[in-house]
Amino acid sequence: MQTLPTQEHFSVDVSALPYQRNGWKKGYESQPNEYDYSIDDIEGEIPAALQGTLFRNGPGLLDINGQRLHHPFDGDGMISAIAFNNGRAHYRNRFVRTEGFIAEQAAGKILYRGVFGTQKPGGWLANAFDFKLKNIANTNVIYWGGKLLALWEAAEPYRLDPNTLNTIGIDYLDGILKEGESFAAHPRIDPSCEYNAGEPVLVNFAIKAGLSSTIIIYEFDQSGKLLRRQSRSIPGFAFIHDFVITPNYCIFFQNAVSFNPIPFAVGLRGAGECVKFEPEKPTRIVVIPRTPPTPLYQGGDKEGVQILETKAGFVFHHANAFEQDGKIYIDSICYDKLPEVEPDSDFRNVDFEALTPGQFWRFTLNLNEQTVERQQLEERCCEFPSLHPNNVGRPYRYMFTGAAHNPTGNAPLQAILKLDVTTGEQQLWSAAPKGYVSEPIFVPRPDSNQEDDGWVLTVVYDSSRHRSDVVILDGRDLNQGPVARLHLKHHIPYGLHGSWTPNVF
User: Coiled-coil region(s) at which residues (predicted)?
Assistant: First the structure.
């Protein structure tokens, strides 16, 4: 195991105190208000060529009428849209009006159990054998096929009006999904699919977990029409949040975990609290060809599927994968173990120093020899990787990710790291000690053919003012600091994922 040589160029003093715990905690306060306004408090200048809309999703409510949720992942989805047009910007946010959101707001109390431990009032007896979960639509938001969809991996998408963010309702993708079927929150867009005449394709999946698990893969053209669907069975319980694609494969990391449903069934724990990391078991890497034997292949066998094993670890998010020299390379944020959610814990009082950080690793697969090699590319604590959209599934050079301010140890994400995966050279822009970043989104500059020629957009929580900023960085040089910093009138609670569209809504 060997790390790449690094050349660090930092625009900040990495020896400074990286964060203030009480300031970080304020970013987990609910934002019950919905806004609609032009952003006029701006430092710097919005690039005129930056035209389109940044959509963000995440839990907007961390309590229901004062009753705290046990974990932010149980919070109702709130969509933010920042539209850029001719050097100006507009902000709008709306909650996704799911059935559960409407019911709980009307009742003024928690009515549903949360996957990550939120319980209905009344103790275990009130929660026992209640398996109805609220679709919280809080994880990602994408615009594809003329539809704006809020995604939560345990249920169907909710469709929104992209101009107003008003909720239209559950979307079954023109009959592709049946009631109760899920659609994951981490689609990948193949920028040039050879099986679709070189046109882009959206690839997504769903998991049906059990003693053996089923992975369902969907591929859609730009109009939203289903091109291919395949269903593959794999042995064992599968807890999979993200995946990666190459031109020929979909690749999944089957984390080394087990699931004991009994505490959930009897009302003692949430389902997510019943997932346990098993370090003695390997991580399985499931490689599924994207070209099934026939269109809309429905087979449940493992024809063409290969499963390789590597050292146990836990992966929430991947950066990218690509094929080169007869091998498959997968770049991922990997943890030594799953950070488990305990029933008596308080996520606002997390002990960062006691947890192992997520770090950037490369896995090299040789399918012919059935081998996996691991290589650490970056030691710094990081999460939410992003890259140029044209390089998804292809060899690439630059990765942008949320990162800790200090080069070692675990800490909140306060910086944006640019990593050259070829040379190891780094650039870091930090919002420390009072700023906390979200997932960066890379937006290419129009008509540019340079991989890092574009803008990195991120939402930063400013704990000193209890408000959020939209920060625009130049992807070629993070060291120059923000090109523009758009000060919002309020804070946005820490979010999860988002996307960019060149459409101005």
Answer: none
CB 265 within 8 A of CB 128: yes
What is the C-alpha to C-alpha distance for residues 109 and 84, in angstroms, rounded to an integer? 37
Could you report the per-residue pLDDT of 392-444, keeping only the tens digit for each?
A: 999 999 999 999 999 999 999 999 999 999 999 999 999 999 999 999 999 99
> What range does the domain containing 382 cover?
8-501
497 assigned binding-site residue: yes
Domain count of the chain? 1
How far apart are alpha carbons 385 and 332 in whole angstroms?
8
Q: Is 241 annotated as belonging to a binding site? A: yes
186 is in an annotated binding site: yes
What is the spatial distance between Cα 193 and Cα 432, in angstroms, rounded to a whole number?
A: 41
Rounded CA-CA distance 441/372 in Å is 30
Q: DSSP letters along 201-221, please?
A: EEEEEEEE-SSEEEEEEEEE-
What gap in Å lies between CA 449 and CA 170, rounded to an integer? 39
The candidate with the shortest Cα–Cα distance to 247, out of 349, 327, 145, 321, is: 321
For residue 285, tell me if it sits in a domain.
Answer: yes
Tens of pLDDT, residue by residue over 28-74, are 999 999 999 999 999 999 999 999 999 999 999 999 999 999 999 99
**Residue 3 resides in a domain:** no
Q: How many residues does the chain have?
A: 505
Integer Cα distance of 323 and 326 in angstroms: 7
Report if residue 260 sits inside a domain: yes
Q: Which two tokens stand for residue 260?
A: 């004991």
